[in-house]
Amino acid sequence: MALKTREDYLKSLKAMRPNVYKFGKLIEDVTTDPATRRTVESHARAFDAAHDPEYADAFTAVSDFTGEKILRWNGMMDSLEDIVANSVFKRWMYRFTGTCNGGLCVGWNSQNVMWNVTALIDKDCGTNYQERLKKWIIGAQEKGLVVAGALTDAKGDRSMKPSQQPELDANVHIKEVRADGVVISGVKAMICGVAASNEIFLLPGSGYKEEDKAFALACVVPRDIEGLTIVETRRPSDGRELEEEGWDIPETAITQAYLIFEDCFVPNERVFMCQEFKYSGKVIEYFTANYRACIGACVAGQGDIMIGAAALMARTNGLAAGTFSGKMVDMAINNETTYAVGIGAMAVGKPGPGGMWVSDSLLAHTNKVHVATLPYETKRLCQDIGGGIVETGCFPSYKDFQDPKYGKKIESVVKASVRFSAESRARAARLSEWLTLGAGVPGCMHGGGSPDGAKLVVRAFTPVDKFAQMASKIAGITEEITEPEKKKK
């Protein structure tokens, strides 16, 4: 089985039904349209790496099912070595692109999570979900698919359950169960990498009770399934992603989208949970444990590029990068902290009920809190080193540099070091700006869930009473020190 190449990947996207919109415009070809071609380019670089002897070990694996060599993001994670490889892969992808590549991430995690959850459902309910999932995974491996993942629903009023929402489509749900499949409707929101993906793996957005069983759905659909409209949302780059030339933003990017499902039919062979609400919480538990462990590698990889961007700015400003070595060390420590805590979460994890690895929840959610804080300090340091040309937003555009009236003068004054061109300084400045202020900023705060949600998990897994008993023993306290009774209102 030959590994898919960049050319194969681009061809597969070109063959899909156009159903992606941005700014009210239907995108006919996601590989060439300026609104989406950069995220496609980001994902395509993974195919390049898989065929590069220097990186092939990180970007390929061996199929558990066929023994064939496959693209790593289509593989299973049934050992500590496999899930650590997930983090290694993610850090390299950020180093290659500077940004998120959701089609090589969430779908991969989803298939492994559902392998564990389908083992539970099949055992308790006599279903055959895991066999369906196995057939789909083998097909994905053979085709070398890029698979986005969709958990987050639009949600609606947060004080109401999904079934209580005045707009039921605020959450993706099953409208009808047929003998040959299900009909689904609803909206998944802020989903990464969809425009660059072949398929989308849908998971329940929360743990549900019986009254919300229609929302307990796990399935995988082609990105161009009939009834699905994809609306790419705007990133904070002032529309510069639509520029066809110049250096105002890099050639790589991430896109996020709203997925509007309207009476989409999903055949049984693509359905892996259908109203089994009791297991929806397990999906969230397993998914967040692995995702929040691995995301530490994502922000570390982008942090590596921020160190590099800061060094470029120092040099094009006329200074040695070593002038800022103390700040760069602080940046590196931030990077290694999120990376290491994530690896630690994996190391103390264990196989789940289906044999796929599940990271330790306490450490994984602790890592999420670090991911929501440390990268912002790294960004601040990158801006600090780069100077006002990076951070103030007061920097001429590529088109200004080309203007026949004043472009040459702007170019002459933007040039700083006698050793380097004005264009090199401009490119370095725009990269730092993009990484720290613009569209290159990944979802550090809320990507993969909120830090407040992570803190709730940390709180639940921290045995305060047990620690208090241990402390009492060391202190020689013989009486029981308990919490005061709650005052009656």
Automatic annotation (TrEMBL):
The protein's enzyme class: lyase
Recorded coiled-coil stretches: none
Organism encoding this protein: Pelotomaculum propionicicum
This enzyme's EC code(s): 4.2.1.120
Keywords: FAD, Flavoprotein, Isomerase, Lyase, Oxidoreductase
Recorded GO MF terms: 4-hydroxybutanoyl-CoA dehydratase activity; isomerase activity; oxidoreductase activity, acting on the CH-CH group of donors
A Pfam family: HpaB_N
InterPro entries, A to Z: Acyl-CoA_Oxase/DH_mid-dom_sf (IPR046373), AcylCo_DH-like_C (IPR036250), AcylCoA_DH/oxidase_NM_dom_sf (IPR009100), HpaB/PvcC/4-BUDH (IPR004925), HpaB/PvcC/4-BUDH_C (IPR024719), HpaB/PvcC/4-BUDH_N (IPR024674)
The HpaB/PvcC/4-BUDH C-terminal domain, residue ranges: 281-476
Record protein name field: 4-hydroxybutyryl-CoA dehydratase/vinylacetyl-CoA-Delta-isomerase
Record flagged with keyword Metal-binding: no
Residue ranges of every copy of the HpaB/PvcC/4-BUDH N-terminal domain listed in the record: 5-273
